[in-house]
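Box 4.2: Ligand-aware structure prediction
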Amino acid sequence: MTILHDMECKIVYRCECNEKEYPSSTSLKAHQKTKGHMNWENKKELRDLKKCLTERDNEIVSLKLRVERLKELNTTLILRMKEDI
Ligand SMILES: [Zn+2]
């Protein structure tokens, strides 16, 4: 019985925009200068920015809620202190 094992390890130059493989880093770089790739990169950047913005918005909302809760707690504590005096 012969076990064939492919131990070949090769570097794959693949671009995220089209999942295509390129034979060398030079041809990958050449592709990355094309309009199609540039458009994809710009869109990706915009998507990432929008995602970031949404995350920030959510963070702001949750921080505002926390501030409100702390204000309430503060008021409660002040009232209790007054009661004690
Ligand atoms: Zn690309």
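In the box above, the bound molecule is zinc ion. The longest strand covers residues 13-14.
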